[in-house]
Every structure is written in C-alpha cells, then in structure tokens.
Amino acid sequence: MHEHDAQDWADVRRSQLSAALARVAAGERAALRELYDRTSAKLFGICVRICADQQGAEDVLQDVYITIWNRAAGFDPERASPITWLATIARNRAIDWRRARQKIDTMLPIDAASAVADGAIDAADRIDDARSTARLGACLETLDDRAGRAIREAYYGGFSYAELAARDAVPLGTMKSWIRRGLDRLRKCLTNGG
Amino acid sequence: MDPPEDDPDLLAAEFSLGVLEGGDRAAALRQMLADPAFARRVDAWRERLAPLNDLMPEVSPPPGLWRSIERRLGGGDRGALTRWRAATAATTALAAALLAVIALRPSVLVTAAAPAPQLVAQLGAPQATALLAVYEDQGGNLIVRPAVVEAHNRDAELWVIPKGGAPVSLGVIARDRPTRVALGAHRHLVSRDAVLAVTLEPIGGSPTGKPTGPVIAQGAISII
Fold it and tell me: For residues A90 and B12, what is the distance between their CA atoms, to the nearest angstrom?
C-alpha cells in the first residue's frame, strides 16, 4: 500500500469514527454497537496490556464503552482525533483500575514491555497513520536508551514514576529526570520535523 | 541538563504519559479543567504519543462482552431525545450531530469571537448523560440541553449546589428544547467546585425554594 493510500484510509476511518461518535452523543444505541465493532479489539488490547489481568481488562472495557456512551457529547473533532480520544479513555480507565488494585506482584516482567514494542513493529497492516508512527519511533530512537525504554514502558504498562523507579531499582528522582529529559528531547525531535 | 521544573508543556507530557500519581496527577487534572491552554498541550501530547497505541497488539474481547455492556445501558436508545427528535422530524444523524455541536459551542457560533473558557456540566442519570449544560461567558447565561427528561405534570428545575452549600434554584427549564438560563446574581455560584442538579418539581417549580422532588440528573462543573 502506498503511503498516501494509507493516509487516505486513515482519514476515512477518522471521519467514520467521528460520525459514529456524533450519533452516540445523540443517544443512538446502534452507533455505539458500530463503534464497539470497529474499536473494541484495539481498546481491549490496551486494557489487557495495562491491567495485565483478563477479568480486570474485561471489566474495564465495559466501563470504557459506558463512559463513551455518557461522554460522547464531549468529543470535539477539532481537538482530538476520535481514535486517540477513545484510546485515552481506555488507557485512563485501565490505569485507574491498576492503581486502585496496586498489586505489584501481578505485573508482567520488565522485558515484556519492550518485547511488545519491538515485536509489534512488524504488524504494519494495523498501523493507521504510518508516517506519524514512524516519526515517533524514529524520535524515540534518538533518546538515551534508559529514557526511551522508560517512556515506552510507562506508556504500555501504565506505570507511575514510583513504579518505574522500583522496577528499575533506581531512585525516584533519577527516573523522573530520565523521563523528563526524554520527553523534552522527544518534543524537540517531533517539532523539528524529525 | 534537566529541563526547567515549571515547564507546563512537560507537565502536560508527564500527565499524558500517565506517570504522575496522587496529588501531582490530581493537580494536573485540575489544571487541565481550569486552563484551556494547558488542556490543548495535553491534547497535543496525547496525539504525539498515540502512535504507540498502534504498536499494542489488538485483542478480541470475549463474545459475551457486548451483551454485558448492553445490560448495563438498560433498554433502547436514550428515550426522551429519540421522542423529541421524532417530534421535530430531526431524524438524521446530521441533525443530531448539529444539535450536539450547537449545545457544546454556543459562544463560538453565537458570537464568532474567540471562545472564552466554557464551564460545562454533563448531568448524568445513572445510565446516561441526561443533560448537558454550557456556560456562555458573554451575557452570563447557562444553556441547558435536555436529553432525558420525562415526567408528566411536573416541571424540571435546575439547581446549583455550591461547594459546602445548600442548593440554589436557577429556575424551571424546558424539557423539550435547550433552555438559556440567565444566571444574574447567581453567576458567582456557577464555578468549578459547584454541582448542577435537576429535580422534578410541581408545575411552576418547588413551592418551598428547596428541592422537593427526585434528582433526575446531577453533575460536577468542568471547563472544556
């Protein structure tokens, strides 16, 4: 698939999701079902990854779609892309669930996060917007190894500073410094066009 | 070298990444609600980091999960709105979307001036967003859009409940169309710490000045 085809496809998907969200906001149950069919595998993937618990992820996914039903009127297509808005709800719900449980012993081993990140890069057919993904990936590569890994782990696992510091056995201040420097560098890389 | 401690854009990045917790996370959330510029930074960071979502493997949820969601939603579409739409022949998705947009961004459409921060409350019944309230800075009005307000021989009355205070009536609102409520002297009560609520009252509103009927919707105020 050519890059511009992928981009067109992403645009089509975006407007379809926005339209479905507008209908959900108007109270249309069928639109929520359509949204579920289109997005549940993606959102469940996020929940499973962050909750690291099948039953917990199922409960959270239910909450996610109830939240979407209740808050769809607050979605503003000029502020966010629909899939990012939906994924943010899934991420935040899953993080809330995890923090509420605070069961450190069920966490995946430290290598799991990087394994997911590296292995999934082959799955290019799932990537909606190849350019921004590649660009973020390239910018993450320019970071200090520890910062890049910590940022990926934080995102994939939903970990807090304190959890990340404990997993890497470094002081909290060190972890904060790695991540903040990494985010600063990431911002410069992304805004300078690569 | 470490970036400066007080860089709001980095705070937005940390918040979007999800590494903040406890008081820091709550403070960032408050800032997001109070400060539209900060909220835009958060939106921008969410978009920047969103490509990472594409690298998480998709997982199909178990087949029964949609049923569980449906059960929790209760029956059918959001009732009153559907009936209202049928009554006004506004049956297309486009018309419905338009309604939502007008309700959400009144000052943009009404004044064409730069939008001021808008206080909003989504007043949720247990199962659904029942009402959406939007604050119009110019004129100090609150626009309330009903979605599920159904009751016979009763009026819906809007209340503001200041933090730690008693409910103050903002008047009776229409059940079948958006109502513009002039806040007047109550303007200062409609702030971020307050709660908006709707109760069912006798026709004409509560006779006592206090809520007497059931609460059909309530929600905290936030800024979009």
Answer: 18
Q: Is CATH 1.10.1740.10 what the domain over A3-132 is classified as, yes or no?
A: yes
> Which contiguous run of DSSP H or E holds residue B196?
strand B195-202
Cβ <8 Å between A46 and B53: yes
Question: Mind listing the pLDDT tens digit for each residue in B52-110?
Answer: 988 888 999 999 999 999 998 876 665 434 433 333 322 223 222 222 322 333 332 22
Q: How far apart are CA A146 and CA A181, in angstroms?
A: 11
10 Å Cβ neighbour count for A108? 14
**A:61-80 residues touching chain B, CB 8 A cutoff:** 61-62, 65-66, 69-71, 73-74, 76, 79-80
**A10: pLDDT strictly greater than 70:** no
- In tens, the pLDDT along B138-188 reads 667 777 766 555 566 778 888 888 777 788 898 888 776 777 888 878 877
CB contact under 8 A, A179 and B19: yes
Q: What are phi and psi of B95, to 5 degrees?
A: -65, -40
The whole-angstrom distance between residue A124's C-alpha and the CA centroid of its chain comes to: 16
What are the beta bridge partners of residue B171?
A: B158
Sole residue written with tokens 């206090």? B210
Q: Residue A49's closest chain B neighbor by CA?
A: B56
Domains of chain A: which residue ranges?
3-132, 141-194
CATH topology of domain A141-194: Arc Repressor Mutant, subunit A (1.10.10)
In this complex, do A84 and B47 lie within 8 Å of one another by their Cβ atoms? yes
**pTM for the model:** 0.60
Q: Report residue B222: phi and psi, to 5°.
A: -140, 175
Residues 57-96 of B with CB under 8 A from A: 57-62, 65-66, 68-70, 72-73, 76-78, 81-82, 85, 93, 96
pLDDT given at position B206 = 84
The strand pairing partners of B141, in sequence order, are B136, B182
